[in-house]
Write a structure and sequence with these properties.
The longest helix has 22 residues. Helix 2 links the parallel strand 1 and strand 2. It is built from 5 helices and 5 strands, in the order H-E-H-E-H-E-H-E-H-E. It has a single domain, classed as DsrEFH-like (Hypothetical Protein Ychn, Chain: A, 3-Layer(aba) Sandwich), CATH 3.40.1260.10. The chain has 140 residues and is α/β, with parallel strands linked by helices. This is Intracellular sulfur oxidation protein, DsrE/DsrF family.
């Protein structure tokens, strides 16, 4: 019995490690919804995205911003331009809701050029979910 327990623990540890590696290599597809305009929320959110790529470098990520969340993508006084650009280089797509632009009377030229635009942010999220993407609400 004394010899079996260490062997069982060793085999159990190996199975956990091999499972963790398989999970991190899976091509995860994640759609985030960001509606918060607070810079502290933006800081934590970008750190979360960076952490995902450390754990799962093959992840596909789209961030849909609407409401006050579009402020993350402003092209003036943006504390996070370099970090956002680095995430875009890794494949993250940042989308801005055109309905929000109209409601807030803003123009596309007021936002980072690396951002994309969607007609309706919530509809974009729904369509991704219908295609099997995992939804995460950012900033809570």
């Amino acid at each position: 019995m004394k010899k079996i327990l260490p062997l069982a623990l060793f085999l159990f540890s190996l199975s956990i490690l091999s499972h963790a590696q398989v999970v991190s290599e899976a091509p995860h597809r994640i759609i985030y919804q960001l509606t918060d305009g607070d810079v502290d929320v933006h800081e934590k959110f970008l750190r979360q995205l960076e952490n995902i790529f450390r754990a799962a470098p093959n992840a596909q990520i789209e961030v849909v911003t609407h409401g006050m969340g579009i402020d993350l993508m402003r092209n003036t006084n943006n504390l996070y331009t370099e970090r956002i650009a680095a995430l875009v280089e890794k494949g993250v797509e940042f989308m801005i809701c055109e309905n929000t632009l109209a409601q807030r009377k803003l123009e596309k030229g007021q936002f980072l050029e690396l951002a994309g635009f969607v007609p309706a942010g919530v509809l974009e999220i729904v369509m991704k979910q219908e295609k099997g993407w995992i939804y995460i609400k950012a900033g809570i």
